[in-house]
Amino acid sequence: MTPARKKRLVLIGLMLAGIGIGLTFALKALDENIMFFFTPTEVAQGKAPINKLFRLGGMVVDGSVSRPGDGLTVQFDLTDNGEQVTVRYTGILPDLFREGQGIIANGKIGDDGNFIAQEVLAKHDENYMPPEIAEAMKKASEAKASVN
Amino acid sequence: MFLWFHKFGSPPHFYRIAGKWLPWLGVTFGLLLIAGLYGGLIYAPADYQQGESFRIIYIHVPAAWMSLFVYMVMAFCGVVIIVWRMKLAEVVLISSAPIGASFTFLALATGSLWGKPMWGAWWVWDARLTSELILLFLYLGVIGLHSAIDDKRIASRAVAILAIVGVVNIPIIHYSVEWWNTLHQGPTVTKFDKPSIDMRMLIPLLIMALAFKIYYVMALFQSCRAELLRRERNSKWVEELSGSN
Q1: Is A43's Cβ below 8 Å from some Cβ in B?
Q2: A27 and A100 assigned to the same domain
Q3: How many domains does one find in chain A?
Q4: Number of H helices, E strands in chain A
Q5: Which structural domain, as residue segments, surrounds residue A1?
Q6: Does the distance separating the beta carbons of B201 and A130 come in below 8 Å?
Q7: Is residue A125 predicted with pLDDT exceeding 70?
Q8: Alpha helices (H) along chain A
Q9: What is the pLDDT, as a whole number, of residue B170?
Q10: Radius of gyration of chain B measured on its C-alpha atoms
Q11: What is the CB neighbour count within 10 angstroms for residue A145?
Q12: CA A118 to CA A102: how far, in whole Å?
């Protein structure tokens, strides 16, 4: 490689390193804004904004879904296997909404300490399988649980 | 090896070789596409949660992978342009941009169509979606910058720098779902662990990914040949080519 070419290659390397470092610091500084949602534990620790809209993410607790009142309002608990937050929402739920499913709700903490959602999004996980395998896996884990 | 590289890099030689390869690439692409579509739409079972809607994965995921891959090719060409001043790399870079932009757009559009019923929203500003949108703007920026400068050799150098700078976005897109809380799910296939997808669903996906890759090479060769003729219109080999017809 000729010296001129080597110099240009080194310059490209330095340029990329500089941009990379700069961007890393910028993203670190913006970390909280890039986070799409807060977890129930973060809410309990008081990290979530008060009297302001924010997104809350967690799993719907099994057996916590109920429809008090007019039937359009849904109430359920969200958990991150630590803390729990009760969410109330009036509107249409996405297809993937079900117990045990990851959910992201946009809203704010109401006067009664419950989370009043204006929008509910379902977070899909990275697992893909046919229904019969999901069924078999569920049975296997139930069998294991009954043995213990 | 270096000699071969040198020879392949010469415009008339590349023009001839690419022309010879094109029909074969076309046939391979066609066969893979049929196999992949059959596998994805008929052979693969429905998902336990998403039902039939999950089948959009067979377009969405290969398109998203290609959007990253094509950009990596462009950035590599950018380095070759700046360091070695190779003409063919200039042509490959600028010919890749519209193809990559199309893949990015396809990934965003199919993701949006899937997002509405599954997530409950067409679009959210989470890290994955936003960084992929920035990638689309980078592609459009490359196309725009190249056409804004009349001298194509200078334009190529400018575009090469843009392509190299933009490459920092690629790891951000890939790791966005791990670094931050996002609505978009984590990686299913491209992780060190065993892929968390059923084999019967995975195989058509990989076939489709390969089909997309072949399509890229095919489209690239075709548009490179056109670009080469345009750039070298005053050279001897193009004259001979048009004279013989």
Answers
A1: no
A2: no
A3: 2
A4: 4, 5
A5: 1-34
A6: yes
A7: yes
A8: 3-29, 31-34, 40-44, 131-147
A9: 94
A10: 20
A11: 8
A12: 17
Domain match, A22 and A87 both = no
Q: Is the sign of the CA dihedral B141, B147, B153, B155 positive or negative?
A: negative
Q: How far apart are CA B108 and CA B102, in angstroms?
A: 10
pLDDT tens readout for residues B101-129: 999 999 999 999 998 888 888 998 888 99
Note the pLDDT tens digit of each residue in A21-76: 999 888 888 877 777 788 888 888 877 777 888 888 888 888 888 887 777 888 88
Interface residue A37 vs chain B (CB under 8 A): yes
Domain identity same for A79 and A90 = yes
Question: Chain B within 8 Å of A121 (Cβ-Cβ)?
Answer: yes
Residue A119, helix vs strand vs coil: strand
Q: Which of A70, A57, A66 is nearest to A104 (CA)?
A: A57
Which A residues in the span 51-110 are in contact with B, Cβ-Cβ below 8 Å? Answer: 57, 92-96, 104
Chain B interface includes A140 (CB < 8 A): no
Mean per-residue pLDDT of chain B: 90
> Beta-carbon neighbour count of residue B242 at 10 Å?
10
Which is more confidently placed, A126 or A75? A75
One domain, residues A29 and A41: no
Give the best residue of B5, B126, B175 to mutate against chain A (max A CB count within 10 A).
Answer: B126
ipTM: 0.73
| In a shared domain, residues A65 and A97 | yes
**CB–CB of B201 and A129 under 8 A?**
yes
B19: helix, strand or coil: helix
Give chain B positions within 8 Å (CB) of A121.
Answer: 119-121, 124, 183
Measured between CB atoms, does A131 come within 8 Å of chain B?
A: yes
Q: Is B134 on the interface with A (CB under 8 A)?
A: no
Subunit contact A129:B120, Cβ cutoff 8 A: no
B219 interfacial to chain A (CB closer than 8 Å): no
Contact A124 B118 (CB under 8 A): yes
pLDDT in tens, B159-198: 999 999 999 999 999 988 888 878 888 888 776 667 778 8
For residue A30, count CB atoms less than 10 angstroms from its CB and return exposed for 0-12, middle for 13-18, buried for 19 or more: exposed
